[in-house]
Amino acid sequence: MSEIPSHFRTIEIADLPVERGRLVFTTVKSSHLKGRGDTTLYIPANVDADQKVPVVILLHGVYCSHWGWALKGRAHESLQQMIDDGEIPPMILAMPSDGLWGDGSGYFAHNGRDFENWIVEDIPILVQEATGNGIDAPHFIAGLSMGGYGAMRLGAAHPDRFNAFSGHSSVTDYEDLRQFVEEPSDSYGVDTVDGPSTLNTILENRERLVPFRFDCGADDILIDANRKLAEQLKEAGLDFVYEEFPGAHEWPYWEKHVRKSYKFFAEQL
């Protein structure tokens, strides 16, 4: 068993070298989750401990877990290729589970567990303890579908933690999320009126907003919601990037366009 660190009561780490860099799998006991949480990290080639390498947190969608971005989206391979090609500087990827509640936790606090601060507080500390990277390194957050919902809201709400945020094919509000999950509305402790809203979160924090972008496929089931959000943000006079590309709500789209997030984040350094 691994030595007990300062923040987590228990931590287990498996380090897997890949062709370029390392995949690191971790399980920690989190007070926010009231139990264990899993995360996949990617440490690029030629990154040493005790540096302040930018960290990108990637949030998965419903039904999936921490392995999705790496094993289905090959996010680490795209990152390493962009680093090798000189398009972006080295960055560490942190790909956590959402807390594994129901079909999807939504990345907000409910049912006695704080899925929001699992991401905002625990994951940066986990990266530091597992890799030696500086806790004060720049941090960014992105996600797909439910993960886009989480990334857009958490990025807007926590400018002291994140330098920029990005969403791909994002769920935009709680009512959108409801169409994907089996659990009844009241099981989340909120209703469709009071549930967390991307628009409201961004507007509530408009004086502190960091740079952000989002995109969606033209054939995606969430395209109308993303277009509506873009129009509402434009009407509010906010500065942001919204893009549409060919594609649907599927991994080939996210595998391709996560590169847009990496590039955008590199431009903020």
What does this structure look like?
Helix content is 32%, strand content 21%. It has eight helices and nine strands. Strands 1-2-3-5-4-6-7-8-9 form a nine-stranded mixed sheet, sandwiched between helices. Helix 7 links the parallel strand 8 and strand 9. Helix 2 packs across helix 8 and helix 4 runs parallel beside helix 6. The longest helix has 17 residues.
Keywords:
269 residues; alpha/beta; nine-stranded mixed sheet
How many beta-strand runs?
9
Beta strand %: 15-25%
Largest sheet: 9 strands, mixed
The structure class reads: alpha/beta
**Rounded mean pLDDT score:** 92
Unreliable parts: none
* Fraction of helical residues: 25-40%
Q: Quick recap of the structure?
A:
The protein is α/β, with parallel strands linked by helices and 269 residues long. It has helices at residues 68-71, 75-84, 115-131, 146-157, 174-178, 198-204, 223-235, 251-267, and strands spanning 11-17, 22-30, 35-43, 55-59, 92-96, 139-144, 164-168, 212-217, 241-245.
